[in-house]
Amino acid sequence: MTKNFFAALAFCLTLAPAAAADPFNVKVDQTVTLKLSQPANSVVVGNATVADVAVHDPRTLLVTGKAFGSTNLTVLDRAGNTIYSSALNVGGEEDNGLTIVRSGATYSYSCMDKCRATPMVGDAPNHFQDVMSTVTAKAQTAKGGN
User: Reduced to 3 states, what is the DSSP secondary structure of residue 22?
Assistant: First the structure.
């Protein structure tokens, strides 16, 4: 009888959907490793504008925050069973970041040794464009461009 009970219990557990995990948090422009207990076959992000997921190997996902917001992450095994499901929250800048709000417009800075402007989704459009122009010009110079 106990043999049948354990066999039935094991069968039920394989059919049960994966328990929802605690919300997964990542910062904008940062990547966090997510280790899975089983090999993944399919990975789905609810809103690819908010986050991106790269599959490093069948049990390792790399989750990158792209923009502020919330979405969800679902991982399926080869049989189509859910092996991981979680809310995915993308938020705030690094601990060494500084955000200035002036007249309703937002300006972001990264403050390692001193504060420098950094492009952040949601910044004032002119500030964002100015910072991106500087970043792009620097990248072109590094490549040997004009």
Answer: coil
